[in-house]
Amino acid sequence: MNKSDFQELLNVQKDAEYLKKSYDSLKKNYENQYIAIKDGKVVAHNKSIDIILKLLKNKKINPSNVLIEFLHPTDMVLIL
């Protein structure tokens, strides 16, 4: 892993912290949608993951360097 890859990992970790901290407000605005977070901002949102990937491509953002999360309409508990 080179320095640039490591930095991207740190950036995604920061975006995960932003998601956790802002989850309630993000869910209120983007419920039942996928959101893509980069540098502490929502850079794309849609109900379709395919459209999210197209939007990122159009913005010349590499999806591997973005946190993508689906915001469920209700809190879910999965029992596996």
- Poorly predicted segments: none
- Give the structural class: alpha+beta
Q: Main sheet, how many strands, which sense, barrel?
A: 3 strands, antiparallel
- The helix count comes to 2
- Order of SSEs: HEEHE
Total number of distinct structural domains: 1
Q: First CA to last CA: what distance?
A: 34 Å
Strand element count: 3
Q: How much beta, percentage-wise?
A: 15-25%
Portion of residues in helices? 40-55%
Shape estimate: globular
Neighbour order of strands in the largest sheet: 2-1-3
- The average pLDDT is 91
Radius of gyration from the CA trace? 13 Å
Brief synopsis:
The chain has 80 residues and is α+β, with helices and mostly antiparallel strands. It contains two helices and three strands; from the N terminus they run H-E-E-H-E.
What does it look like?
By secondary structure, the chain is of the alpha+beta class. The protein has one domain. It has helices at 3-30, 49-58; strands at residues 33-38, 41-46, 67-71. The mean pLDDT is 91.
Topology, please?
Layout: H1 3-30, E1 33-38, E2 41-46, H2 49-58, E3 67-71
Antiparallel strand pairs: 1-2, 1-3
Structure keywords:
21% strand, 80 residues, 2 helices, three-stranded antiparallel sheet, alpha+beta, 3 strands
